[in-house]
Amino acid sequence: MAKIDKVEIKERVNQVAMDMILKFGLRGLNMVELADGCGLAKATLYKIIGTKEDLVREISIEIFNVNIIKTLYPFKPENDPIEASREFLNNYFNYAIQGQKILLLQIFKEYPLIEKSVNEYFDVEMQKVISCYKIWQERKLVREDVNVEYCIEVLHVLNDHYIISDYSDEEIIKRLQSAFRCTFIGMGIPL
Question: Which parts pass through the membrane (predicted)?
């Protein structure tokens, strides 16, 4: 098997596994069905992925990348804070809720070490966002008397609280939109 074939097969396995998790949850990730869905023998599948936990770790990071990194893209110092915050809100509520539910309610409970790995990525990305807001503060585009780190931390805590709540997705989005908008407006970013 050529190296490129292995890469393509690995990507296919990851995509099919992610689709299974997003559709059926973590418990819906059945290795026999995954192997069948990819046209592989179960033994071949394990040679490609290592362990199920290794596969779930990769999927978790991919969910994080697709759902979180994409939403944080507008946070660059050269961007306008109002437009960046608006774009973030639009992207965030379109992409991130379902992926976070799977991460927080299923994967992290089953695999605590994966939570640690994903949180390390998250912390790096949050520092970029905080740095961006601090630059905007220095340029007087964001209120100077507000501690942006506290604001971002509050949003993170509220986010996790609502994601793991029993509210419907629509209600979670409504509550988070309100919390995020209030925080941004309090930071001096008129939305």
Answer: none
**pTM: predicted TM-score of the whole model, two decimal places:** 0.81
Domain 1-50 in CATH 1.10.10? The answer is yes
pLDDT in tens, the chain (191 residues): 555 588 899 999 999 999 999 889 999 999 999 999 999 999 999 999 999 999 999 999 988 887 777 788 889 888 899 999 998 888 887 667 888 888 999 999 999 999 999 999 889 989 999 999 999 999 999 999 999 999 999 999 999 999 999 999 899 999 999 999 999 999 999 98
- Tokens at residue 28, please? 């819906």
The domain defined by 51-186 folds into: Tetracycline Repressor; domain 2 (1.10.357)
